[in-house]
């Protein structure tokens, strides 16, 4: 199955040769959701962490992690990222609240930024957990997935 | 709410002072699950990636990421990890297969290794995604959570 | 001059052998000051960067850099930091405002955390510069120095 | 105030989207000064650190730090640096000597290298401090600032 | 001797200015050999490390290290690598077996990837040593050298 | 074969659990040799790189790499190094000169520093190559091996 491009003939992982691919503008959006209790949500909203905002720390951590993606994910190519931003939205859920985290990443290069976007939201979710775990360790990081990507030979991709 | 220990009086995040805490043996287990299609599962099982094994790459990436946790999660204390191992289990699901990833981490120190275990499984899941995404980009990383922790003043914790 | 402990007999830098030193509680406080124009100070105070706060980013960057000190300063020993916090104070100056940044670091180890504290305030100052340089590139980072250190065989030190 | 380009609408820091900017040749020069006592200056000049030269270590540390800038300063874009060099000059001061450190950095890219140059001189100064602090802990890092930058849409900049 | 391009007029190392060099396609192949005992070779071949394969770990470590070359070798320029693969071959030797490791790296840039290829094989050899040293610490890493490079103004190079 | 301690039951590499091991003083010495032509040796000795000294850069790079060992070698435990120094000796060889590089590392911990010493000399040799390759690309890094280690349950080890 030639689709497993990340493997060589001996079954060992390689960094795929992209030297012949075109430089195009590429974007990727990834999403992660973290489920929190009403108690924790209220504590955050009511300013019980004073002026502090866990989303600030989560966004900074996510951006810094996106820049480290090629150091974290073994076969990722180094990429010169050209822009990263996040949105955060709280939604009432059955048992409390869901915090929906989205990261959008842009670059122009020979390979896409899907892994960078997925790494960014994963680390943002882990950082939110870390900043709030003294109050509630039962938080669960729920669905983490690629929402969309554009650019590159394999074409655009939209989840679902 | 004094429980938000990661914040100082001005609402800015700090690295909590743990100098007065005791050195104890600490363990943490975290879990992440990745949903894959039957097509992708069959390709892996039928050896279509030849001798290659995405779980090898995922485990190595997860162990290396656990060692980088204090560099990835802003307020994490540096910790001298003393042992890390993973289990991987495939389970039939409604729409394909679930790969259940667990990491167990040990150390003796003044603070726990929950974030290290959560980072390890998150990066293992992201790496599995990266190694297989040429075949199927629709994989979703599902529940990521702390299964249990032992050791430390705040006592043991078991999910649910 | 035996005081130049960081050099070997051939005049090349070495990492000093501290294996015979005692583990003691050690603290260090370092300070850096950044001079900004009244125009920039007013923009920040009047909320012209909306809810954003450059001190949040500076503090997070400073804490993360302190953890990287042994990777940045060639002959520094790796140290397990146990607590870091910052204070920030604006003071009216002759030509605008001074932002006075102090970092306090704690550990128990065989060597001190002076370089970690100096690195923390330097990176916090550089980050403040980066977050505001689109408004004013003329900011100057003024005096950066070790305010005090305690613990260790060489005794306590207080600036001036 | 649209000039605070590093912040999004919610007041959280973002990595600015530079994908539409032109690739141009860019240079930056930054300067830092470190004040040292006559006693320390004499010890260095009289070869009391044998053949050793703290400026060698400072220059190497500064070049390596410049390459890490995007990992140290949270919102900095990764940049492919194309050349870095330093000058060091000792000058007699009122109370001893001033060591004036300048770093010049070149690249061709979509964003400038000001932060890289400032990081380079800051880390060179911190490293000089580290290599000599066993002799004299009272050294003070004095003015650190951007001397000039060229290239890019915002035009050239010269200090004062 | 102007050939020592990595040094400035004061005898301190600099990162060479490559801004005027052309972007060309560049490749490099490096080789390292590790000598192992018949006992260790047999243990690996007979599956005594069960399904485990030290070459998997060595290849992954070598690829990740190649991406870190500019962080490890002080005067190396950062480079955007575009493809890395390895070959491993065991050969009977006088006293046991030789494992011959070759890495091939591709990029298009202003400077070559010789140091990246040499770093890749060196780290692959060190990792093989680490994975097997519990069985046999007497392994010796033998000749490590640049096999060939193509591209760039200085022309192609072939060992011997 | 239980000696392959770095592998779990499924044949995947793990970070060995050392939590039950004793903290002891540990040392390791490793050696690497680089063969250089008479032309290159003479150029260095005759001061053709002015005041510059490739051994300075090699030693600094080796010390910094030793501190990164757990980040470079996948299954290495993080270790708090307590002292590192190098010796360099040139010896006349059949075809030119051999530069013999030795690194000595100390720590007190639950696991040894063999990989740190081997990484230190390997990176020192690679850095020497990088600093001189503009003059002569035919240098070969010859035998790299563990000279001795002391401390730890497995006892002392001396090469040959």
Automatic annotation (TrEMBL), chains A, B, C, D, E, F:
Which residues catalyse the reaction?
A: 130
Lineage top rank: taxon: Bacteria
Q: Which part of the chain is the Molybdopterin cofactor biosynthesis C (MoaC) domain?
A: 15-152
**Keywords linked to the UniProt accession:** Lyase, Molybdenum cofactor biosynthesis
The answer to whether the entry has keyword Isomerase is: no
Q: Where does substrate bind?
A: 75-77, 115-116
For this chain, one GO molecular function annotation is: cyclic pyranopterin monophosphate synthase activity
What does it catalyze? (8S)-3',8-cyclo-7,8-dihydroguanosine 5'-triphosphate = cyclic pyranopterin phosphate + diphosphate
Function according to Swiss-Prot or TrEMBL: Catalyzes the conversion of (8S)-3',8-cyclo-7,8-dihydroguanosine 5'-triphosphate to cyclic pyranopterin monophosphate (cPMP).
What's this protein's name? Cyclic pyranopterin monophosphate synthase
């Amino acid at each position: 199955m030639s689709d497993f491009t990340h493997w060589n003939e001996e079954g060992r992982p390689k960094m795929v040769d992209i030297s012949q691919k075109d430089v195009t503008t590429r974007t990727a959006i990834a999403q992660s959701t973290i489920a929190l209790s009403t108690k924790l949500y209220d504590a955050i909203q009511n300013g019980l962490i004073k002026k502090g905002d866990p989303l600030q720390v989560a966004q900074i951590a996510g951006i810094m992690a996106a820049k480290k993606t090629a150091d974290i994910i073994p076969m990722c190519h180094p990429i010169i990222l050209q822009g990263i931003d996040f949105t955060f939205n709280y939604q009432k859920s059955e048992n409390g609240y869901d915090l929906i985290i989205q990261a959008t990443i842009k670059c122009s290069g020979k390979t896409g930024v899907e892994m960078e976007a997925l790494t960014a939201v994963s680390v943002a979710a882990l950082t939110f957990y870390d900043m709030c775990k003294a109050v509630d360790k039962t938080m669960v990081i729920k669905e983490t997935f690629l929402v969309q990507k554009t650019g590159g030979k394999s074409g655009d991709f939209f989840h679902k």
